[in-house]
Each structure stands twice: as structure tokens, then as C-alpha cells.
Write a structure and sequence with these properties.
Elements: E1 17-20, E2 27-30, E3 38-40, E4 46-49, E5 57-60, E6 76-79, E7 82-93, E8 100-108, E9 112-119, E10 122-129, E11 135-136, E12 140-143, E13 146-165, E14 174-182, E15 185-191, E16 196-204, H1 206-212, H2 232-261, E17 265-274, E18 283-284, E19 288-302, E20 308-318, E21 324-338, E22 341-347, E23 349-370, E24 376-384, H3 390-418
Helix pairs in contact: 2-3
Amino acid sequence: MAGNEPRIKSAPAPALKVFNCPSCGAGISLRAAGQSVTAVCGSCAAIIDSSNENFQILEKAAKQGKRAQVIPLGQRGKLHGALWEVIGYMERKDGSGVFVWSEYLLFNPLKGFRWLTEFDGHWNYVITTKTKPTKLQSKEVTHLNKSYHLFHKGSAIVSYVIGEFYWQVKQGETVEVDDYVSPPEILSSERSANEVNWSLGEYVEADTVKSAFQIVQPMPRQAGVAPNQPSTATHNIKEVGKYWGLFLGTIVMLQLAFMVMAKNQTVYSDQFEFGPSDIEKIKVSPQFELSQGTSNLEIILSAPIQNDWIEVEGDLVNDDNGETIEFEQGVEYYSGRDSEGSWSEGSQQSSRVLSSIPGGKYHLNLSAKSGQYSNIYYKLVIKRSVITWSNFLLALVLISIYPLFAWWRSRSFEMDRWSKSDFSPYYQHQDEH
């Protein structure tokens, strides 16, 4: 895409004009007579001035083999609500010659010119924009209140042309190109010695192009992610994020409600002595009562141990029906001093929560064991209807699994997109130019 696009006046479609190439005599068809400036002979590649009836040769270019022209000249197709005819085709390459892409010039007598570009099997519908970016930064431009991020800087060299164009195109013509992306759009500037032109491209699915122009042959195989290819994963994560926020708000409200309703009531507290003679002996606590209804119980074990451990095995026995709930709970605590200073590990207190304990009268059957054969005092405190976070955290994990997966897919897609750019926010490149 180069040159200033001419202004199109409302007029009936011009008739197809045919003339003979002044270089080789081959027939050349003008599909935009009166609008095109040059025509390129498909037989000898001569570039001809089509703006007047003399049809003078501007340049005798060496004909080169084309890359893979998918849509022939003269083919018509409907895109963006208008019928377009392919009147020109060119191939361009970057300065290294490694990357080559195709550009099809489309013409509609009422709407003017558009471009259809293809690279690595990805297509873009492109229009020259007269509205220049209003805000420029080193790696970002703003166009019509939308931000575009720098993706590529380099040169574009015409390597093959055929058909007619609205400027004097020639092989070897070179412009400097800057591409900025905001999927599904790409905003590009092309700079020559005399002018700067901006164009706005929109990603088009290959199947859409194939259907519009009734292409029979296989489409170019797609490779990788295009610079402005829209990501279904990115769109999906926005929707998922909305629902994740709703679910998060719900479980937060439920947790707050549980916290307000929690009584945190101490229903039993007692201290027990454990000594060498108490190994494998069962100690029975006095009876205590739990309020009616079903709620949780927190059992808190504490012991003033030092470089030792103690483990308590207990049975919570329902005196009304004889049902028993077994539990084990222990504490260990070690401390000392070494070359790096004081250290400690473990704790002299631990707790655990038993869920869904019905109301009634209960007692405890307790036994204990320890690492040393000396008397140890341990204390048990039982609280009814306490605040817990386990269900909240479990729910948070469950509602976050799919959003995290969606985020990972979206990030992977974006990393693939930007892996081809020297200006990636995900990769550091040594040579940014």
C-alpha cells in the first residue's frame, strides 16, 4: 500500500478498457480506467502509464515469479457490504527478504480503492485513512480515541506487480513501515522520501475471503498468530471475569453472614495431667452440653512443652445416643541457639474444627502420649459455632480454576502473537530498532 489514494467521484461504473502492451503486444485490461495511473503487463512486467491514451512505458521491469496469487485479476467479491473487483496484485518483502506477503488492490467505482493483504495465511481488509494519529508516543499511537501499540518497524520492498494501480508503482520501490496493533485492527504508516501515508486494517477470517471471492483452490496455510488476530480466549476471559466477580461477591457475602452469625461460644475447658504412669490410660471428662441445632466445634489443645511433643487421642461421645467422633491432636515445640542466633519451630498450641456436630450432651474420653517421661499438663478448650475459612477458601479455589485456565490461554495466545515483535511486552529483545 503506497501513494495517495485519489478522490472518487460518484459516477457509473467505467467500462472495461483493453489495450495492447507497447512493449510485448499482450492485451491489458483496465478495470479502473480514469482512476488508475499505471498498469503492469502480465506478460512482460512492463510498467505502463495508463493515465493517458499514449500508454507509454515507464519502466521495463524484469518479470519475477509470483509467490502465490490466490485471487486472480478481475475476480469480484463482496466484503463489508460492497462489491469489489481485484484490479492489482503486488508482492512485497522486508529488508532481509525473509518475509514476503501479498497485497490485492480492490476497486469499487463508488467507494474507491481498498486493499486485501495476506501474510502467513492471515488476511486483512485495509483502507487508507485520512485521519492521522493525534497523539504519538515512542511505542504507542492514538487514533480516533483508540490506542495502538507498536508491533513492527522496518522496510517494505515491492518484489512483484501485476495489474493497475493508482500511483506509479515499480519493482524495488521501498518505503519505511511502522505497524501498530489493537486487535482486530492494525494501523500502519508508510514513509517515503516525499510523503507519509496511514492505513487501517481489520483482520478477516480466511474462510470469509474464500467465500466472498468464490475461491476454489486451497487457501494459504495459516502459520502462528497474526499481529492483529483477535483472540477468542481474550474475549472469553472478559466474560469469565464478570462471572468470577459475581461469584466472588456471593461467597464473600456468605462468609460475612457466617461471621456475623458465629457465636464463638466456649462450651468446655479443662486441664489434664499426663505422666509416665498414664500411658494408655483413658481419662473421662465431665459432661458438657452443646446447644440445640447443628454447628461446628473447635478443639484447642495447648501445653507448655519445651523441646518436646504431646499427642492426644480423643473420643467425643454423644451421651444421648452413644455416637462417637474420634479425633487426634498434638503439639510440638523446639527451640535453641546456634551460630546464627536463637531459633524455634513448632507451637505450644494447635486447633482443629469438627463439622456438623448436633446439639446434645457430650463427654470426652482422652488418652495421651509424649516424647519424654515426665509430667505434662495440657489444656483442652472446646468452642461452639466458630468462624472458619476453609469452606470460603475451597469455594474461592473452585470458582477460580476456570478463570485461571482462561487467563493462561489468553496469555499464551498473546505471547505467541508478540513473539514475532521486537517490541513485545512479554519478551526482551537485544536489538530494538
